[in-house]
Write a structure and sequence with these properties.
Chain C: Part of the FGAM synthase complex composed of 1 PurL, 1 PurQ and 2 PurS subunits. The structure holds 3 protein chains of 3 kinds. By secondary structure, chain B is α+β, with helices and mostly antiparallel strands. Chain B is built from 2 helices and 3 strands, in the order βαβαβ. The longest helix of chain B has 15 residues, at about 55-65. Chain C has one domain (about 20-255): Rossmann fold (3-Layer(aba) Sandwich). Chain C has helices at about 35-45, 85-95, 105-115, 170-180, 240-255, and strands at about 20-25, 45-50, 65, 100-105, 120, 130-140, 155-160, 165, 180-185, 200, 210. Classes of the chains: A alpha+beta, B alpha+beta, C alpha/beta.
Chain lengths: ~800, ~90, ~260
């Protein structure tokens, strides 16, 4: 058994103790709380807390720092009750409060022009942002992480990641219409990687397929830097009519508060504060609590039930229950509303009747929603829940007191200002500084390094290099994974993997729809986090434009190591600064996202991985551009300029080298390229387009040929001459702002005129050839498609099938 | 040939969606005598020859490492049964 | 609030002539492809009628589709709980009286659990969910749902399932073969280990058909498979599944 397996095993054996420990602590101080017959508790009431100021509380075990605890005492003017302590500790955790990242994230809201706000109907801060699509339609999308839970229990961790992001989308009033999954695993041949790949892929499929949501894209990256910290990010997108937009607020005194969906059990207790906020460390005893288990059937029923509730206009405000469960839902609903809230906690339907009040408040049981309903609508609400056979219980009502009051059998156990729980948590200005090692890393360019000793030059060597690249774990076909996801359900999928972006039709009358892509190259971000984050945005933006859609909005999932490490914190600060600057330049606002910190094991952090999702709009998805050519004789053009840029590239990665500086970023060129690709798509000039990113031109041409199994004759002599690069560099450089397109013969003049008029470099590099089943690099080498396909498709089955 | 039976059940505190769906169906079908259902798994490990303590120990090990996921499941039984068809008597 | 269509509820103008035929699409809890099946009916020219699992009412429809999905999560066995839904009493009675009934994927599983069709589906032999564009051969074009296809012709439709391996005892399989009741067979690749490459079957009368692949996902150019068995098509342009829906509509209209 490997060290890692042993470590996993030792963690897996401790949940019972861990949970008991929590049960004791969460019940409250020993003198105030004890179990009687396993069901009744002597409750730590507000009154009792005021009378016993010196009772010691387990705030440190719950993850609060001493000054944070003191601040709670100061806010309340007394010691917190056990239940209040549970709420504050979980809501003030890194995961829920964004206390380390908040000061930086503000830039996403500050660096925004009026033009960028034009189509933003709901911005950052709600469950997910909402963007106007016109004709009364709106779209909401967001990407979130479920990294740590997926390492501990891959199937359930990944499954509940999908469940959580989909509930965020529902709670905005939208019908979820698609999901995507950016995934990062450790080395492809590491013994623990197969455990994670099998569990995570099956979990995403098992949950997403059962919800009836097409999976239309994502990423799969293998890199040993993610060995102990795989990244499982999940994106969901939903659509709605403007009038259906719902917000998470509790307004109108006298309105009823209802909890519905699954019953509350001991799932993931403390998960929000403990599991997501502390990195795995062998030296400390494991505090891992019970794992959350997902029930996709319950969630599917919940989706349809909620949509019927929205259609009938019987809910005023709604909030999904995710991290921090009822603590989060009640405090957020109350603090976003105009009054207060008063609920009776014993009204919560329980799966496990032994749960203490603190545990009920912290439980992360899945597939639950909380809503605010006017008294007149109670009957209609109950009828819809009965139709869908969904359980519910009325917990209390909205008040005008400005306080969140929670009772247990009529005795008050929580009496707080909800804003102090939900929004006024601690904010840290964590120290950060540029790592000293970075200069050395940036000085270590690939060209001329030992790793670059045997650079392919002859035709045969280049052919072997292309085959090696296309069979490598990061560049190989991902069909073995994506074929385990349903891409057809709902009948609106216009493009999916392996095309540049996923495309979904929104309006069946007009064909209006959206395109989505997620991207990030963690190696670029490691070499330069400011530029790396911008390059992630540039690639995602380029992918959406390559499919033919106009980029409109951004979501991000910022995966980093420990914020307590000043060098990691610098990476984070630089990435946020870079991404927000680039969003402003490209004119696309960030509408929502997620931060995942502490992705490190034994002091080693992952590469900074700011995953960026871009959403674009089509007036008619019939105009979308696929990533492969099919028509014999069409001209193949390379748009953009190729530089000698191999640092951080996939080729350097294959040779085990990571150093130098990432490719040059030119956002003006990206924007112009995007406009040209969108115009060419609208005007029917191009029949295929593919962006150039990892693996450069070699990867793009290979993928375009394999998409429909159609070959081409390629000549790169003129390119090498024009851009002053050798053939190897022309094929493997990862210069940005480039794309390959296939142009119909009748459109060639118009296409060239368009590029020339806008001053954008373009060069005819070949012609589609349906007869010769090969990529023929004329005068150099010929790559039979069968050989390329075998290399490209064989890798994942070899390791995982 | 003797077999070793291994029963695996979802941990009591863990949600069991399968059991929940079946319990609901029983109620709707009017079979209301049951207050809850939990669905587990049964494995039958066939042994060539005698079940020694060593083999049984292997089965116990397999039960907690491979056959169950200790994060969400408990092994509730590891027991030897003699197969009647080959006429082994106690 | 305006009555706006949720995604998938939009109806294009039906072809004149077939629109009088009304085809019910049942929604069970956990059904996923009901909007797709209804769209397929409309694109073929018919009128789709939503039916609810909890009602003892087929609303006088001329045919019924049990669509794909994971009803009740497929938690006990696929289709095992849905077969007891109230509406299934009317479906079983109707089927015995000659009502055309089509079960797709989970719907096929419900029909076998309800004993309207023989055999059963178990987990795919490779144990993974699989989604692929699948070639099928139409072995029997005399059923209510396949008359528009030439016997022996091939079609490409999506396949997506977890429990899609068709199994039955040898006697049942021999009977199905002998009576010509194998309607669809997998071609090139058997994607799930189904006995004798069986993808779909019918009852003796030919009115009840069940199949694992999804013809309703190959009815609209632009949103179907990338290929067709009938010749080159555009990107996601395959519509080979449409014939199943026009088959039943023409049969209904012709009989009226």
């Amino acid at each position: 058994m490997s060290d890692l397996n042993q470590r996993v095993q030792s963690r897996l054996e401790t949940p019972a103790e861990a949970r008991n420990e929590h049960g004791h602590h969460l019940g409250g101080p020993a003198d105030a709380v004890e179990h009687i017959e396993g069901r009744k508790f002597n409750i730590d009431t507000v009154e009792h807390a005021a009378a016993t100021p010196d009772t010691p509380l387990p705030w440190a075990e719950l993850g609060l720092k001493e000054d944070e605890y003191n601040r709670v005492v100061e806010i309340l003017g007394r010691r917190p009750t056990a239940a209040e302590l549970a709420m504050y500790s979980v809501m003030w955790s890194e995961h829920c409060s964004y206390k380390s990242s908040k000061v930086h994230l503000r830039q996403f809201g500050d660096k925004v022009t009026e033009e960028m706000k034009k189509d933003m109907l709901v911005g950052i801060g709600e469950n997910a942002g909402v963007t106007n699509l016109g004709d009364g339609w709106a779209v909401t999308f967001k990407v979130e992480s479920h990294n740590h839970p997926s390492f501990v229990e891959p199937y359930q961790g990944a499954a509940t990641g999908i469940g959580g992001i989909v509930r965020d989308i529902i709670s905005m009033g939208a019908r979820p219409v698609a999901v995507m999954d950016p995934l990062r695993f450790g080395a492809v041949d590491h013994p623990d990687t197969a455990r994670l790949v099998h569990g995570i892929v099956a979990g995403i499929g098992g949950y997403g397929n059962s919800l009836g949501l097409p999976n239309i894209g994502g990423e799969v990256v293998f890199d040993s830097v993610y060995q102990g910290n795989p990244l499982v990010n999940a994106l969901a997108v939903g659509v709605m009519r403007h009038e259906d937009i719902r917000l998470a607020n509790a307004s109108g005194a006298g309105n009823k508060v209802v909890l519905f969906g699954a019953r509350t059990g001991g799932d993931g207790i403390g998960g929000a504060s403990v599991l997501a906020s502390e990195s795995f460390d062998d030296s400390k005893p494991a505090k891992r609590p019970a794992v959350q288990v997902g029930d996709p059937f319950a969630e599917k029923v919940l989706i349809e039930c909620c949509l019927e509730l929205f259609k009938a206009s019987v809910v005023e405000g709604i909030q999904d229950l995710g991290a921090a469960g009822i603590s989060c839902a009640t405090s957020e609903l109350a603090s976003n509303g105009d009054g207060g809230m008063h609920i009776e906690l014993t009204s919560v339907l329980l799966r496990d009747p032994t749960l203490t009040p603190g545990e009920i408040l912290m439980s992360e049981s899945q597939e639950r929603m909380m809503a605010v309903v006017t008294p007149q609508n109670v009957e209609a609400f109950e009828a819809i829940l009965a139709k869908w056979n969904v359980e519910y219980s009325w917990l209390g009502e909205v008040t005008g007191t400005g306080r969140l009051i929670i009772d247990w059998n009529g005795e008050t156990i929580v009496d707080v200002d909800p804003r102090t729980v939900a929004h006024e948590g601690p904010v840290y200005e964590r120290p950060y500084h540029r790592p000293e090692w970075l200069d050395g890393v940036q000085a270590d360019a690939f060209a001329g390094s030992a790793a670059d000793a045997s650079r392919p030059a002859s035709g045969e060597e280049l052919k072997a290099a292309v085959l090696e690249l296309m069979a490598s774990p990061n560049m190989c076909a991902k069909d073995w994974i994506t074929n385990q996801y349903d891409r057809y359900v709902r009948g609106n999928t216009a493009l999916a993997m392996p095309d540049d972006a996923g495309v979904i039709r929104v309006d069946e009358t007009t064909g209006m729809g959206v395109a989505l892509s997620t991207d990030c190259n963690g190696r670029y971000a490691y070499l330069d986090p400011y530029t790396g984050a911008q390059l992630a945005l540039a690639e995602s933006y380029r992918n959406v434009a390559t499919a033919g859609a106009v980029p409109m909005a951004v979501t991000d999932c910022l995966n980093f190591g420990s914020p307590e490490d000043p060098e990691v914190m610098w990476q984070f600060a630089e990435a946020v600064r870079g991404l927000s600057d680039a969003c402003m330049t490209l004119g696309v606002p960030v509408t929502g996202g997620n931060v995942s910190l502490y992705n490190q094991t034994g002091g080693v952090a992952i590469h900074p991985t700011p995953v960026v999702g871009v959403l674009g709009k089509f007036d008619d998805v019939a105009r979308r551009t696929p990533s492969g050519w099919r028509e014999d004789g069409q001209a193949i053009y390379l748009m953009g300029t190729t530089r000698d840029e191999l640092d951080g590239s996939e080729w350097a990665n294959l040779r085990g080298h990571l150093g130098g500086k990432p490719p040059v970023l030119d956002l003006a060129a990206e924007k112009l390229l995007g406009e040209l690709l969108i115009n060419a798509s609208r005007d029917g000039m191009i029949d295929a387009a593919h962006d150039l990113s990892e693996g450069g031109l070699a990867a793009a041409l290979s993928e375009m040929a394999l998409r429909f199994g159609v070959g081409a004759r390629i000549g790169l002599g003129e390119l090498c001459e024009r851009d002053g690069v050798d053939l190897f560099t022309a094929l493997f450089s990862e210069s940005q702002a480039r794309a390959v397109v296939a142009v119909a013969r009748s459109e060639e003049v118009r296409f060239k005129d368009m590029c020339t008029a806008r001053g954008f470099a373009h060069l005819r590099i070949g012609v589609v050839d349906t007869q010769n089943e090969a990529l023929d690099f004329q005068g150099q080498f010929s790559l039979p498609l069968a050989e390329l396909k075998e290399a490209h498709e064989g890798t994942l089955p070899k390791y995982f099938a | 040939m003797p077999r070793i039976i291994v029963d695996v059940m979802p941990k009591p505190e863990i949600l069991d969606p399968q059991g929940k769906a079946i319990a609901g169906a029983l109620q709707r079908l009017g079979q209301t005598g049951f207050s809850a259902v939990r669905q587990g798994k049964r494995f039958e490990l066939t042994v060539d020859g005698e079940v020694t303590e060593e083999v049984l120990e292997q089965a116990r090990h397999a039960a907690v490492t491979l056959l169950s996921n200790p994060v969400i499941e408990d092994v509730t039984r590891v027991e030897v049964v003699k197969d009647a068809t080959i006429g082994v008597s106690e | 609030m305006s009555e706006t269509p949720l995604i998938g509820d939009f109806s294009p103008a039906p072809d004149a002539g077939l629109s009088g035929a009304r085809i019910g699409v049942i929604t069970f809890p956990g059904t996923l492809d009901d909007a797709d099946a209804a769209r397929a009916v409309r694109l073929a020219g018919g009128t789709a009628v939503s039916l609810w699992h909890g009602d003892h009412d087929l609303q006088g429809v001329d045919a019924v589709i049990l669509p794909g999905g994971f009803s009740y999560g497929d938690y006990l066995r696929a289709g095992a709980i849905s077969r007891f839904a109230p509406v299934m009493e009317q479906v079983v009675d109707g089927a015995k009286g000659g009502l055309p009934v089509l079960g797709i994927c989970n719907g096929f599983q419900v029909l076998t659990e309800a004993h309207l069709l023989p055999g059963s589906m178990i987990k795919n032999n490779h144990l993974h969910f699989v989604c692929r564009d699948q070639k099928l051969r139409v072995e029997n074009n005399s059923t209510a749902w396949t008359a528009e296809y030439a016997a022996g012709s091939e079609i490409v439709v999506p396949l997506k399932n977890q429990d899609g391996q068709y199994v039955a005892d040898e006697k049942t399989l021999d009977e199905l073969e002998g009576e010509g009741r194998v309607v669809f067979r997998y071609v090139d690749v058997n994607p799930n280990g189904s006995r004798r490459d069986i993808a779909g079957i019918t009852n003796a009368a030919g009115n009840v058909v069940g199949l694992m692949p999804h013809p309703e996902h190959a009815v609209e150019a632009g949103y179907g498979p990338d290929s067709s068995a009938f010749g080159p098509v555009g990107v996601r342009g395959g519509t080979d599944g449409l014939g199943m829906f026009t088959s039943v509509l023409k049969k209904i209209v012709g009989a009226n």
